[in-house]
Write a structure and sequence with these properties.
Length: 423
C-alpha cells in the first residue's frame, strides 16, 4: 500500500510538473515576471532621479546679497537643473505688493514658484515657497536645504570670514554605514540592503500566491471536467492532492532556480558592476538564497494546501477569484510594517509578525534588509509554518475527499462541517 501511494503521488506529480513547465504561462512568467520587477524598480529609480528638475524659480529677500547667496546654493545642486532669477529688492525692503506680484507670476506660469526669505529678528529668518503644486516634496526639500545653507553662508560672511574658511566649515562629511553581524563589522548600504530584501520579499510573495492560486484553479478545472472520477479509480484522493502539491511546487521551484541562476550569472558579469556602481552595491548572501528557497517551499505549500481545499468546495474559477483578496491580507499586513521593520527590526510587534505563519516569509525578508534575525527566530518561524501546514493539510484533505465529487451545489458552512465529520 505504501509503495502504491508513493507510485501514485510520483505519477501525478510528474504529470503536473510536465504540464506546468511545458505551458506557455511558465515560459512567459519566467521571463516576464523578473522583467516586470526590473521595469518597476527602474521606473521608480528614474522617476525619483528626475523629480523636481528644470524648475524656474524666483528668489526674493530683503537683502540682495542674501538673495544672491541663496540663489547660488540652489544652482549648486546640479541634479535640480533649476533656473533661478533674483527678484529685485526695493529700497524699502519687500512688501506684500511684491509678494502679490510674484503670486501673479506663478498663477500665469511665468515662473514655477518663488522662494520668499524675510527676517523675523536678530539672525533669524522665515522662508516660504509658493508654487502651483503642493506635493512636490523633492523641490521643497532641495529649496529648504539651499535656503538654510545660503542664509548660514551669508551670516558667516557678515562675521568677516573668508570664502575659503566658509567653504571648509560648510563642506559635507559623508556618513559611512557599517553593520555588525556575529560580532564582526562589515561595510553596508542601508538603501541597497533594504531594496534587495524588499525585492526578494515581493518576488517571494508573488510566486507563492500565483502557484497557490494555480493549484486551486487546477482542482476546479479537473473537478468540472469530471476527470477526477477516472483518476479516483486508481488513486486515493489524498494521493491526488499530494501529487498535485508536489508537481506544481516543483514547477515553481524550477522557476525560482532559473531566476537564481540568472541572477548569479548577472552578478558575476561586468554588467552588474556597471549597473551598481558608486554607492549602489548588490548584496545577496548565501543565507538569503537558502532561506528564499525554504520560505518559498513553505509559503507555497501553505497557500496551495489552503486553495486546494477551497477549490474542492467551489464550482467555478470566478468563485475562487472572490476569495483571492483573503490571501492578500497577510501581504498587506506585512508590507504595512515596513516603517517599523526598518527602524526597529527587533521590535516585539515585528518579531510577532515574523512568527505568524501567513506573514513569516515576507516579514523575515524585510527584516533581513535591516538586520539578520537571530537563528532561533528563523528556526522557530520554520517550525511554526510546518505546524500550520500540517493543520491546513489536515482540513484540506478532508474537504478534498468529498468536495471533488460534489457537483452543482455550493457548499455552505454547515455542510462543510458535515464533510469534515464524514471524512
Amino acid at each position: 500500500m505504501h509503495k502504491n501511494t508513493l507510485r501514485n503521488v510520483s505519477l501525478i506529480a510528474r504529470r503536473e510538473y510536465v504540464e506546468g513547465v511545458r505551458s506557455k504561462g511558465f515560459l512567459v512568467a519566467t521571463i516576464l515576471l523578473p522583467g516586470v520587477f526590473a521595469l518597476v524598480f527602474g521606473l521608480v529609480f528614474l522617476s525619483s532621479k528626475y523629480l523636481g528638475v528644470d524648475r524656474n524659480i524666483a528668489v526674493a529677500a530683503d537683502n540682495p546679497a542674501l538673495a544672491a547667496q541663496v540663489r547660488s546654493q540652489i544652482l549648486a545642486d546640479k541634479d535640480a537643473k533649476a533656473t533661478v532669477q533674483l527678484y529685485p529688492t526695493p529700497a524699502g525692503g519687500l512688501t506684500m505688493a511684491d509678494r502679490a506680484t510674484l503670486v501673479a507670476q506663478v498663477g500665469n506660469r511665468a515662473i514655477d514658484g518663488f522662494l520668499w526669505v524675510e527676517p523675523t529678528g536678530h539672525d533669524s529668518f522665515r522662508i516660504s515657497y509658493d508654487a502651483r503644486s503642493s506635493a512636490d516634496f523633492v523641490t521643497n526639500n532641495r529649496l529648504e536645504k539651499a535656503a538654510n545653507d545660503g542664509i548660514l553662508r551669508w551670516q558667516l560672511q557678515q562675521r568677516t570670514m573668508t570664502p575659503a574658511e566658509i567653504e571648509h566649515l560648510m563642506s559635507q562629511i559623508d556618513l559611512e554605514t557599517w553593520q555588525v553581524t556575529h560580532g564582526v563589522e562589515r561595510k553596508s548600504n542601508a538603501l541597497t540592503s533594504f531594496y534587495t530584501a524588499y525585492g526578494m520579499a515581493l518576488l517571494l510573495t508573488m510566486t507563492t500566491m500565483i502557484y497557490g492560486m494555480n493549484v486551486g484553479r487546477s482542482v476546479i478545472q479537473e473537478k468540472t471536467s469530471r476527470i477526477f472520477e477516472v483518476m479516483l479509480a486508481t488513486a486515493r484522493a489524498q494521493d491526488l492532492l499530494a501529487g498535485k502539491l508536489v508537481g506544481v511546487g516543483a514547477v515553481g521551484l524550477t522557476q525560482v532556480g532559473i531566476w537564481i541562476g540568472a541572477a548569479g550569472t548577472f552578478a558575476a558579469s561586468g554588467l552588474a558592476a556597471q549597473a551598481f556602481s558608486g554607492k549602489w552595491h548588490l548584496t545577496i548572501s548565501i543565507e538569503q538564497v537558502v532561506l528564499f528557497v525554504v520560505y518559498f517551499l513553505l509559503g507555497y505549500t501553505l497557500n496551495s494546501a489552503l486553495f486546494a481545499g477551497l477549490g474542492a468546495t467551489l464550482e467555478s474559477e470566478q468563485e475562487l477569484q472572490q476569495y483571492s483578496p483573503l490571501a492578500a491580507v497577510p501581504v498587506w499586513l506585512s508590507f504595512s510594517l515596513i516603517a517599523l521593520i526598518t527602524s526597529d527590526p527587533e521590535s516585539k510587534w515585528v518579531v510577532i509578525a515574523s512568527l505568524f505563519p501567513p506573514c513569516t516569509p515576507i516579514v523575515m525578508f524585510l527584516r533581513m534588509g535591516s538586520q539578520m534575525p537571530p537563528a532561533w527566530q528563523i528556526l522557530l518561524s520554520i517550525l511554526l509554518m510546518l505546524v500550520s501546514i500540517r493543520i491546513v493539510l489536515w482540513f484540506s484533505t478532508k474537504l478534498y475527499r468529498i468536495g471533488i465529487l460534489m457537483y452543482g451545489k455550493r457548499a455552505s458552512l454547515p455542510e462543510l462541517l458535515r464533510w469534515l465529520r464524514y471524512s
